[in-house]
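Quick question, first post here. What does this chain look like in 3D?
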Amino acid sequence: HTHTHTSLCCLSFVESFMLGVSLGGISFVSLRPLKIVGDFPHTTTHRCTHTTHSLARARFSTSECAPTPTPPSLKTMMALLQRSAVRLGRQCSGNMAAYARRTAATSRGRAGVLDQQAEPHKVGAWLLVMPAVAAGLGTWQVFRKQTKEELIEKLHQQLAADPEPLPSTFDDIKSLEYRRFSVSGTFDHDQEILIGPRTLMRENFDGQGSEVGKLVVTPLELTDGRRVLINRGWVPNTHQNPSDRTSGQVEGVQTIDGIFRLSEKPSSFMPANDPAKGAWFSVDVVALAEHLGTLPILLDACPPDAPVRGQLPVAGQTRITIRNTHLEYILTWYSLSLATAGLWFVARRKRAKWENAQKAAAAARQATA
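> Answer (accepted):
Ran it through. Tokens below.
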């Protein structure tokens, strides 16, 4: 009987269930626990406390009330529900006001952060001059590459052309370089000169290592009485003495096909020639002609149609040193053009993004003012 009085202290079972569902739904909307304090006017005033947490799990604390013979009336419960609804409305209004204050503070904080950001530099269109100039230089190198390749092709055609007789006059010697001529005469082996060191040039790799030797330059007395210089070819250091290569010391009138050459441009690391000591490191046509009493004409002997293996000197040592590095310059200039244009675009976009952020921050400040 005592347990029955305790369970019916505040409400009947059905009324308690309905009130729990109602207040639980209201509390679920507010997302906060709702505490209801009800005053039940009876013969003896009782104070009961009930707490609901969610719509899914509605729990009521055990009423600490003195036993009462009768439950509260429906009118009392409606009044209690009305007072709780008023309190809930006040609580929701306070929560919404606090949320509005936090949102405004957050907006002001973001605007302050945007104001504190460093202003990017202005990027003008005139900075596009650099990528434009780089692109122009790259295009210029394209035309230079074409011109250089045409020159190299022309030289190869001259080297492969049929030899022509040596002219009687040499008004424009530079125009004769790399042209092929045919001369006939007798070698003066007693005045040959060794120039080097030099490495052997081969038409095709034959499996032998690159040997170090020297070039043999010998005066040739032509049938018309003129004397010219002939670069007969390469000999190893072990055969510098003419007695070690007697098969190459040809006698009598010889017909030589040769390529017209000018003086070499010695590198800064190459020692200077010393004719008095017989030390020759580079091909200086004028100095050789003065030393040997010949015309300043030098022909690089072409290899014979049927070369004999092991015969010295080894002819065909013409070196064409025409640099063609324009492709590297093309890649460099075009890459620089693309890189500078990309940097300009990134800087321009960063500036525009900063300006848009400033406009957004100003609009946010006006909205919260």
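The chain is about 40% helix and 20% strand.
Strands lie at 34-40, 46-52, 164-165, 180-187, 193-199, 212-222, 227-236, 253-261, 298-301.
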